[in-house]
Amino acid sequence: MRFFTDVTLCIGCKACEVACKQWNQLPADGYAFTGNSYDNTSRLSAASWRHVAFVEQMDREVPVASRWMMLSDVCKHCTNAGCFESCPTGAIVRNEFGDVYVQPDVCNGCGYCVPSCPFGVIAVQPDAGVAQKCTLRPPKGRPRTRLRESMSDRLDRLRAG
Ligand code: SF4
Ligand code: SF4
Is the CB of residue 75 less than 8 Å from the CB of residue 56? Predict the structure, then answer.
């Protein structure tokens, strides 16, 4: 399952960021002004799973030529996911929809997945000691099937390259 953001229509209101936090019961990341952008979310984190980045291209010579664009940043649920491949415990699995999902009860917080994501998405939540990112969580009340790859299947796959 995927979703597409048409950034030509996005106005950067960040309502989707707020909705994501509310839906997933994620805490605030603080309220610090970066001082170099109107975008105070700044980056994705263990508690910020969706980021509407502001791409601010200011032209001081010709102010009217300045451009203020929006960029949707979120987990891509990659087909070849670095986080999935690097996780030594099998905590990261694909669910029945093909989404890349971190099982919090299996993750040990080692952080191997963090540098393995080329997009800087996944991060370890220091308080909880587990890696967190977008789950593409289905509507509340709908059960989520966990497809856990067995360790022997995993070893076979790794050996096969
Ligand atoms: S965390 Fe990174 S590597 Fe893993 S599925 Fe998301 S974008 Fe891909
Ligand atoms: S932090 Fe958790 S999800 Fe990431 S590699 Fe370690 S065990 Fe796997």
Answer: no
Distance 93 CA to ligand 2 centre (A): 11
CATH 3.30.70.20 fits 15-74, yes or no: yes
Whole-number Å distance, alpha carbon 106 to ligand 2 midpoint, is 8
Residue range 6-61, pLDDT digits in tens = 989 999 999 999 999 999 999 988 878 888 888 989 999 999 999 999 999 989 99
Domain boundaries, the chain: 15-74, 82-160
45-70 b/e with 16+ CB inside 10 Å = b?
A: bbbbbbbbbbeeeeeeeeeeeeeeeb
Q: Out of 34-38, 111-115, 124-128, which region has the weakest mean confidence (pLDDT)?
A: 34-38
Alpha helices in 9-150 (DSSP H): 15-24, 82-86, 113-116
pLDDT value at 80 more than 70: yes
**Residue 76 in tokens:** 């891509």
- Which H or E run includes 156? helix 151-160
Evaluate: CB of 53 within 6 angstroms of ligand 2. Answer: no
The residue whose CB lies within 8 Å of the most ligand 2 atoms, and thus the one to mutate among 93, 102, 146, 149, is 102
Q: Provide the pLDDT confidence category of residue 143 given band limits of 50, 70 and 90.
A: very low
